[in-house]
Amino acid sequence: MSLPAAFVSVILIWSTTPLAIKWSALGVGFSFAVFSRMTIGVLLCVALLALFKMRFPLHRKSIQAYLAGGLSMFVAMMLTYWAAQFVTSGMIAVLFGLSPLVTSIAATVWLKEESLTPNKLAGMVLGLIGLWLVFHGGLDLGESSALGVIAVLLAMASQSLGLVWIKRIGDDSSALAMTLGTLAVALPLFCGAWLLADGHWPSEMPARAVAATVYLGTFGSVLGFALYFYLIKNMEAGRVALITLVTPVMALLLGHGLNDEAVLPQVWLGTASILLGLGLHHWGERWIRVLSSIRS
Q1: N or C: less crowded end of the chain, CB within 10 Å?
Q2: Residues 30, 24: Cα–Cα separation, whole Å
Q3: CB under 8 Å to 242, separation ≥6 — which residues?
Q4: pTM of the predicted structure, to 2 decimals
């Protein structure tokens, strides 16, 4: 697949994932929805590895990476699916848009990878302002929305820290093998959570829930993950970061247009502040150089 096609595909998958999460739990419960999604993902990964005759590494570093990915995925997905009962799909996407900022802080502390320059700190401040606006707007969406927002933030933090953890391990397994290993570790945990929370096979599964679960298992858990790693390996990090600037807005529009989700003015203002913060965090130094050249 060409890089532009992969780039557009990741944007579409990430933009539609929050809404698909809400639809997948209709009539079946959040724990069964996420367990079903991950089961489909594991089966598809096994089939693809067998089809392309790709090896599945089981050395020490790969196992450590699978454990790191699986544990962070379990926490992130369980919290996200639970929170989807109380907050809109657009808000989920906006809050997950903060992940580059959290990842940057974790990489600085844990990996000594980069320094927190003034433009990065300014971007984080704008992100926090946007978070406050989104949180304030979300309080008008339901009695449990505050808990839902907190759960999504914890999910976003778990995913971000998991990525830094995997980076610290330094495993070189293929994207597909890493996806399978991560899902294989997480799947028993999702099964246990479903058995504890519900444990009953749904008597009736709405067609929309089935379609959303299959979509998430195929595209959200496998294709999206593999394409993202493909982009990271073949594109500049700054260009890949554009994905996080596009998906929240698209997700808000999709949730509003396809699921009649209310988008309050505070949420739009918060989204704009978060996106501006992300832009300043990633390209602040470049923007400063451009402004300096214009003035001179």
Answers
A1: C
A2: 8
A3: none
A4: 0.84
